[in-house]
Amino acid sequence: MESYIVEGGNSLEGVINISGSKNAALPIIAATILNPGVSIIKNCPNIHDVKNMFIILEMLGAKINRNIDEVIIDTTNINSYEIPANLMHEMRSSVIIAGALIGRMKKCTFTYPGGCEIGARPINMHLDAFKQLGVDIVEKDGYIICECGKLNSADITLDFPSVGATENIMLASCMADGITYIRNAAREPEIKALQEFINDMGGKIKGAGSNTISIEGPTKFHDIEHKVIPDRIECGTYMCIAAGTKGTLELTNVIPEHVSSIVHKLRGIGNRIDIDHDKILIKAPDRIKSTKIKTMPYPGFPTDMQSQFTSLVTTAKGTSIITENIFENRFKYINELIRMGAVATIEGRTVIVEGVNKLHGAEVDVKDLRGGAALIIAALIAEGTTKINGINYIERGYENIVEKLSIIGAKIKKQ
Ligand code: UD1
């Protein structure tokens, strides 16, 4: 098993080009299933989660060619409707393939994705919505078997604005007769990106970005070319790296509006941030201040930035209070931060961090993707050497992280 070896304590400076968004690319790749034809995807991040998604599509019968700057996905010959159980377990977000397969084939068989590193993550809202669209669901020997003669439109209200459930409903209902409504829909930028992709392909979806989305079906799809939006969480992570290392970074290829809650919090703890079209320049102060954060659905502060911010404020002046409202088990990395000298106490869904003067290097284990990013930030802040094990989690979601960090002066290597 490989690890990262990080020598911390350097102030990082330079330019980072932000990659395409993982959470936008995954549902878009699923959506290519809807059109029995060719989709060309540009700015698609080269990360493990995307590679796993391609493996699933190939197992279903798609042909995929990746060049340097685009991926060509030909789904003409998809003939299977079973999402392989091992890949379903490996990558929970593969559940969004179900909506696309139901849309195209009116059938899909898959297993429960199961709990994961950050919580139980049930899929009850996805299944309830499929039923409302006319899908019969039978559970047998651990498999969920979905089937319908035809899909009907429905007026669906979600109990919580789930990103995955909103995407699954959009994918399946494109092929339903009539107009489907999703109320209390997720409003994340990745939902808007999926709407744009499906509409470019011939779909009639309105309202993404608001809490009511309408999808008019059935759709006659055609081939398209699409560029994936920048990854707002990767952008936020590098901004935290600048803030933690007293650095100055320019982030290019970003959509500043998508990171406004993160920028707001970073300014609040003393960073200077200038925005110019698709660029963000962040200059850190000598010492950041403490903060209070509550994670919320978009446009609130993203749960996917909670770990990185907690790591950042370990050396802030004062006490920070961070509350996780989306996932019930997203503090596993805290014990690793404590091994590096952080002073933090978990009380239910809240972590209280007493800022210390410095962190020190240690050997730490990654338990989940964003917790892994938090440990990289801590290792870059810390004095001495940190060995980060379990880096496969990090590489699920961060493209070329070692190369990108090396360019801005970090001492990091894979071993
Ligand atoms: C997506 C993102 C993930 C992000 C999360 C919240 C992708 C690939 N992943 O995950 O990075 O952290 O949104 O912004 O885009 N829930 C249920 N029942 C359901 C569905 C969800 O109880 O049927 C709960 C979940 O357990 C969680 C909450 O709702 O507590 C939010 O989950 P959801 O928005 O669905 O997250 P994902 O789509 O899985």
Please provide a written account of the structure.
The structure is a single chain. The mean pLDDT is 96. The protein has helices spanning 22-31, 48-60, 85-90, 96-105, 124-132, 163-173, 189-200, 232-244, 260-268, 306-312, 334-339, 369-381, 392-395, 401-407, and strands at residues 3-7, 13-17, 38-42, 63-66, 70-74, 107-111, 136-140, 143-147, 155-157, 178-183, 204-206, 212-217, 224-227, 248-252, 272-276, 279-283, 292-294, 319-323, 343-347, 350-354, 363-365, 385-389, 411-414. The protein has 415 residues and is of the alpha+beta class. The protein is 31% helix and 26% strand. The radius of gyration is 21 Å and the shape is elongated. Helix 5 (124-132) packs parallel to helix 6 (163-173), helix 6 (163-173) packs parallel to helix 7 (189-200) and helix 10 (306-312) runs parallel beside helix 12. Strands 21-22-1-23 form a four-stranded mixed sheet. A four-stranded mixed sheet has the order 2-14-16-15. The longest helix is centred in the first third of the chain and has 13 residues, at 48-60. The protein has two domains: 3-18 and 230-414, UDP-n-acetylglucosamine1-carboxyvinyl-transferase, Chain (Alpha-beta prism); 22-227, UDP-n-acetylglucosamine1-carboxyvinyl-transferase, Chain (Alpha-beta prism), CATH 3.65.10.10. It contains 14 helices and 23 strands. Bound molecules: uridine-diphosphate-N-acetylglucosamine (UD1). Uridine-diphosphate-N-acetylglucosamine binds at residues 23, 26, 93, 119, 121-126, 160, 162-165, 186, 190, 303-304, 326-327.
